[in-house]
Amino acid sequence: MITAERHRTILQLIEQRKIIRIQELVDELNSSESTIRRDLSQLEQKNKLKRVHGGASILHQKKEEPSILEKSTKYLSEKVRIAKYAASLIKDNDCIFLDAGTTTNNMIPYINAKNITVVTNSPSHLKPLLEKEFHTYVLGGFVKPRTEALIGQMAVDTLRKFRFDKSFIGVNGIHLNYGYTTPDPEEATLKSVAMKMGQNVYVLADHTKFHEVTFTQIAELEDAVIITNEADEDTINDFKEKTSIEVIDK
Amino acid sequence: MITAERHRTILQLIEQRKIIRIQELVDELNSSESTIRRDLSQLEQKNKLKRVHGGASILHQKKEEPSILEKSTKYLSEKVRIAKYAASLIKDNDCIFLDAGTTTNNMIPYINAKNITVVTNSPSHLKPLLEKEFHTYVLGGFVKPRTEALIGQMAVDTLRKFRFDKSFIGVNGIHLNYGYTTPDPEEATLKSVAMKMGQNVYVLADHTKFHEVTFTQIAELEDAVIITNEADEDTINDFKEKTSIEVIDK
DNA sequence: AATTTTATGAATGATTTTGATTGGTTTTGA
DNA sequence: TCAAAACCAATCAAAATCATTCATAAAATT
């Protein structure tokens, strides 16, 4: 095995296991202890890992996936303004579906309607929803790690039992040709059904979502009203030909 | 296990359990007491945890008065000891049902089995469950305010689709004539179905639950194994005639 | 082909980590 | 309060890990 190949493999293994022992590497790479030691020294020199007694560990300040917290701080004010407007659409006695995601989560504190019923696929929405004393239902099914969203056949089955006055959906991409998209096919299915079950359907999206396309299509543009802000006029006009857009002013 | 690996694991465990005894770490990490002691000193030096007599505890970022845990002479409360024992019953690859409630919640950090699948009716269990990287399913349905437990027909319907190797149930009363009881009829129904779907059924109960009766019956005594501690001998013997009891010693 | 450069694995003694032991201190329970 | 039990800090020898050196083999350069 060539040096570069070993280095690549070592970094991969550390990425997966966070910490790895020298002896493990000796066994798995069929190299001598000396060689592995040299590899680790070199990789540490290049700041690719941290040497620890007995092995090596992943770098502490390794760039993490944009966590839910970071995501929510970056575009906070924009997302909050969108959320606040969306919340104002909810009227007394409405039955609504609230998709998982930070934007929809931001809606909850701003909902002023009374006696509403909320269905969600996000366990993280439950706490704020119950604080508002809404009638709250959650879908069942597999809990997707990291995002804590419910997905899968079981969640979809549960969802089909409901009809909503309004559905509020988050998406990852909005595109003139490809419509609304999201990376995870399972999530796409669920969002799609949630949209079908809603009398009025709203997609919440900040300006970064426009012209973006991700892996799976949820629905066509005309299947929902887009709620956004700060998009440029050309973009707005392009999309206005296909569906309604409600633009919140600054 | 190398030093860095142990340190990482120790911090993870403390994050989950808030407090941990040296002896627990000795057992779970297969290291000597001396080594664990050194680890804890080093981690305290780096301000990653707080040393307490007999073990270590998580740092309080919020200015709280010294927690009950630190002050308490027994580090593990009655409920935690029951939970820990129950957790030890779970084996690799098991599919289990975990009822809502604090005792069952306490089980989660102590589950050491790998590759298990957990179904729960408690959204509050999800965070610790996902931290452990279990395959996690949650029932759907109406979310009962205050307790955040899922109840109702829809939850029961979802539940019926599963079969469990083991079901862990919390109850409010255990009585020689009236069996297991709980105040809310809807909850009782769900617990009852969860018990039917389990190959092995365990009821977790501290000594205060014995001879108590509440509004709705969940099941007969013989439908479950009781896990408890510190109950007096007469009580234990009375119940032993009807079903199995596993008593945790001090 | 001859020479230089680079990579490898074994051997070395130095350094760090580990677990057992000792004796002192704190906690517990009566 | 007191004695037993549990816990702790300090020490030390054994084990594991480490940096260094050296000889050989492979690759690159001339």
UniProtKB/TrEMBL annotation, chains A, B:
<dbReference type="InterPro" id="IPR050313">
    <property type="entry name" value="Carb_Metab_HTH_regulators"/>
</dbReference>
<dbReference type="InterPro" id="IPR036388">
    <property type="entry name" value="WH-like_DNA-bd_sf"/>
</dbReference>
<keyword id="KW-0238">DNA-binding</keyword>
<dbReference type="InterPro" id="IPR014036">
    <property type="entry name" value="DeoR-like_C"/>
</dbReference>
<dbReference type="Pfam" id="PF08220">
    <property type="entry name" value="HTH_DeoR"/>
</dbReference>
<feature type="domain" description="HTH deoR-type">
    <location>
        <begin position="3"/>
        <end position="58"/>
    </location>
</feature>
<protein>
    <submittedName>
        <fullName>DeoR family transcriptional regulator</fullName>
    </submittedName>
</protein>
<dbReference type="InterPro" id="IPR037171">
    <property type="entry name" value="NagB/RpiA_transferase-like"/>
</dbReference>
<dbReference type="Pfam" id="PF00455">
    <property type="entry name" value="DeoRC"/>
</dbReference>
<dbReference type="InterPro" id="IPR001034">
    <property type="entry name" value="DeoR_HTH"/>
</dbReference>
<dbReference type="GO" id="GO:0003677">
    <property type="term" value="F:DNA binding"/>
</dbReference>
<dbReference type="GO" id="GO:0003700">
    <property type="term" value="F:DNA-binding transcription factor activity"/>
</dbReference>
<dbReference type="InterPro" id="IPR036390">
    <property type="entry name" value="WH_DNA-bd_sf"/>
</dbReference>
<keyword id="KW-0804">Transcription</keyword>
<dbReference type="InterPro" id="IPR018356">
    <property type="entry name" value="Tscrpt_reg_HTH_DeoR_CS"/>
</dbReference>
<keyword id="KW-0805">Transcription regulation</keyword>
